[in-house]
Write a structure and sequence with these properties.
The chain is mostly beta strands. The chain contains no helices and eleven strands. The protein is elongated and about 50 Å long.
């Protein structure tokens, strides 16, 4: 199994930056893809960015430009650099990992970290 723990959330003023971290443990070598999602109050969870084991990244069009996903495979840490934050970026940010063990593909969510952007 895989365990994920996010950190780095907090309160920031509009225009500021934050870097979120997600530390993976357990069967980390089985992870093929990792992602950041976010969920604002009253809204559905939405994809922010993905990164594969080969370090290929992908962003929905709405997330391009201010968000950057990266991964330190040596430390098993996933990052999300967020710049020029806006109040509408306020949400709980979740780390997600896709992994295969014994031929079975599964996904795991972290507990989430709150990001609040004040105007």
């Amino acid at each position: 199994q895989v365990q994920l723990v996010e950190s780095g959330g907090g309160l920031v003023q509009a225009g500021g930056s934050l870097r979120l971290s997600c530390t993976a443990s357990g069967s980390v070598d089985s992870i093929s893809i990792m992602a950041w999602f976010r969920q604002a109050p009253g809204k559905q969870r939405e994809l922010v960015a993905t990164i594969t084991k080969e370090f290929r990244t992908n962003y929905p069009d709405s997330m391009k430009g201010r968000f950057s996903i990266s991964r330190d495979s040596a430390k098993n840490v996933l990052y999300l650099q967020m710049n020029n934050l806006k109040p509408e970026d306020t949400a709980v940010y979740y780390c997600n990992a896709g992994f295969s063990i014994d031929g079975t593909y599964s996904t795991k969510w972290g507990q989430g970290t709150q990001v609040t952007v004040s105007s």
